[in-house]
Amino acid sequence: MTATIAIVEDERAIAENYRDALRRSGYRVELYTSRPEALDAFRQRLPDLAVIDVGLGAEVEGGFELCREVRAMAPTLPILFLTARDSELDIISGLRLGADDYLTKDISLPHMQARINALLRRVSVLRDQGEESETLTQGRLQLDISRLHCHWGGEPVDLTVTEFWIVHALAKRPGHVKSRSQLMEAARVVLDDNTITSHVKRIRRKFQVLDSDFNAIGTAYGMGYRWQV
């Protein structure tokens, strides 16, 4: 089945360049130039992955707002920011809003495609595993891999695909320290250490909304993280 990629980019020439490259790789590609246009389309039918620019026309941070809106609609949809804005604050902001990856426009087309392939492959692998209805339970945590669902004490926790992989990697071997590089490998994405740290902080906050005493993800200083039982 051909995956559909939505590109939300207000510079038409850039968007068409991305579209042509991805079509050559066999993807179906849809282009949108504004946040309202993309949001209306996503409400009708979600793509398999969304590539979003931060600045969209008059909306300087329209991409961030779109990410927030799409996350509310589809917690597990892979979202990748592709933008000229490369400040650490922008990168952290994008990840805090739930993006799975954040790239700058100086990246090569083959590198961009590799990151897109990795995001789509993660979803595919999880769903293939899910055909066996695999679940993982650790104390109050339950992961349903067939549907990419996470529950804590019976209450749903909306995790992105990247966050789901990180929790799965930690929880399947409680007590064992996972380095940031190991978590990157488990999440099947290339991120720097600060980005992994941002993801872990966001994951903790999501659990703490349901349980203010949540402390299952421990920090092994200078080493990584562990799932504490």
UniProtKB/TrEMBL annotation:
Q: Which residues carry this modification: 4-aspartylphosphate?
A: 53
The record's annotation in Pfam families points to:
Response_reg, Trans_reg_C
Q: Does the keyword Lipoprotein apply?
A: no
Query: Where would one find coiled-coil regions in this protein?
Result: none
Q: Which UniProt keywords apply?
A: DNA-binding, Phosphoprotein, Transcription, Transcription regulation, Two-component regulatory system
Domain (Response regulatory): give its ranges. Answer: 4-120
Domain (OmpR/PhoB-type): give its ranges: 133-229
Query: Which NCBIfam families does the UniProt record give?
Result: marine_sort_RR (TIGR03787)
Q: Any idea what this protein is called?
A: Proteobacterial dedicated sortase system response regulator
